[in-house]
Amino acid sequence: MLESVFYWFIAVGLAFDLFGCIGLIRLPDVYNRAQAATKCVTLGTCLILTGLAGLAVTRGNGAMCVKALLCAAFILLTSPTGAHALVRGAYLSGLKLWEGSVEDAFADRAERIRNESSQPASPASPEEGVTHREEAETA
Amino acid sequence: MTLFEQLAFGVLLLSSLLCLFRISRGPTAPDRAVAIDILGTLVVGFCCIMALWTGREFYVNIAIAWALISFVATLALAKYLEGRPYDA
Amino acid sequence: MKWLMCLLLVFALWMLLFWEFSLSVLASGLFFALIVSTLLGDIFPDNLHSLFNPRRWFFLLLYLPYFLFYCVKANLDVALRVLHPDVPIHPGIVKVTTTLKTPLAKTALANSITLTPGTLTVDIDGQDLYVHWINVSGRDLETRSKLICGVFEPMLRRIFE
Question: In this structure, are C110 and C142 located in the same domain?
Fold first, then answer.
C-alpha cells in the first residue's frame, strides 16, 4: 500500500520532467523556456528523489533515504539560483525578449550594469597603454 | 527490470532527447546553456531509477555529486554569457 | 563564531552522508570540516546563529508544505500552458518591491519566486526585484508586488528576520 504511494510519486515526477522538456521545445524564447523547464524539472526530480527515499525506507535502507532527501534539498536550493544566473547572463549578453512580450522593465538597469562593468574592465585607452610601455622601455 | 522501471527509463530518455534537440538546434548560446542545465538535472533522475533498479546506494552518491557539479557548471556558463554577445 | 557555525554544519553534513558511526569517519569528518571552515568561514552569512532559534524552525517547517502547495500549483499551471495547442503566454519583465531587509531573506524570496506561478527572478537591486512573468497581469507596482511577493513575505519575515 505505502509502496504504491511512493511509486506514484516517481510516476508524477517523471510526467513533470517530460512536461518541462516539452516546454523547452514549444515556448518561443530563452526566458520562457528557462522558466517552464526549471520549474517542472526541479519539482519532477525532487518528487522522484522523494519517492526513492520512501521506497528505501520501506526496504529498510536508511542511508539511501537520507542521501536521497539531501539530494532533493540540494536541487531545490541550487536549481532556481542557476536559472536566475543563466537568465541574467542571457539578458546582459544582449538577447532581446520575444516580440510578443508585453513589458520590459529591466532594460534600463541592464544598460547601467553593462556600463559599470565595461568601465573598470578597460581602465586605460590603447594610446595610454602604448605610452606607458614606451616609458618603461626608455627607463 | 520491471515494467515500471522500463517505462521510467523510456520517459527520461524521451525528455533527454528533447533536451538534446534544443542543444543541437538552439538558435542562440543561452538556449543551449539552459538546455544543458536541464539535462544535468535529468541525469539525477536517471541515477535515481538506476538506484531503484539495482538497489545499490552508490547511485545516489553519484546523483548528489552530479547535482552539485552541474550547478557549478551552470554558474560558470552564466558568467561566461554575461561578458559575451549572445551569438558568439 | 561564524567559523564554529560553518564547522558544525559541514560536520553534520558529512555524518549524514556517511550515515555510520565509527572512529575513522568521525576523525576524517572533523579533519575535513576544519579545513573547509578555515578556508570558507569568512564568506558565511552573518546572522546565521539566529537560525538556531526554535521558533524560526517551527515557522520553517510550516513554510515547507505551504511552499510545496504553491509550487505544485505553479507546475500544473505551466504544464497546462505548455500542453495547450495555442501556448497562451503574455511574457514580460516587471519590477516589484519587497519589504524584506536581510540578504538571506531576499535570497529565499527570490528562490521561492522562481519556483512559483510563472515568475522567474532576473535580478535584485536593493529592495527592487526584476521578475520575468510568463503571464503579466495587474496595472501598477503595488498590485504586482502583492501578487508576486505577498504570498511569501509574512512567512519569510518570521523565519529570517
Answer: yes
Where in the sequence is the domain holding C27, given as residue range(s)?
2-44
- Report the sign of the C-alpha dihedral through residues B43, A95, C131, A103, in that order: negative
Q: Nearest residue of B to residue A50 by CA position?
A: B48
- Which domain does A43 fall in, by range? 2-101
Distance CA(C25)–CA(A103), nearest Å, equals 55
Domain total in chain A: 2
How many domains in chain C? 2
Return d(Cα B10, Cα A127) in angstroms, integer: 61
Tell if the CB–CB gap between B34 and A86 is shorter than 8 Å: yes
Predicted ipTM of the assembly: 0.86
| Domain shared by A86 and A112, yes or no | no
* Environment class of C123 (CB within 10 Å of its CB; exposed 0-12, middle 13-18, buried 19+): buried
Please indicate, yes or no, whether residues C60 and C116 belong to a single structural domain of this protein: yes
Cβ contact B75–A82 (<8 Å): yes
pLDDT digits (tens, 9 = 90+) for A111-136: 777 777 666 544 444 444 444 444 44
Chain A residues with beta carbon closer than 8 angstroms to that of C110: 80, 84
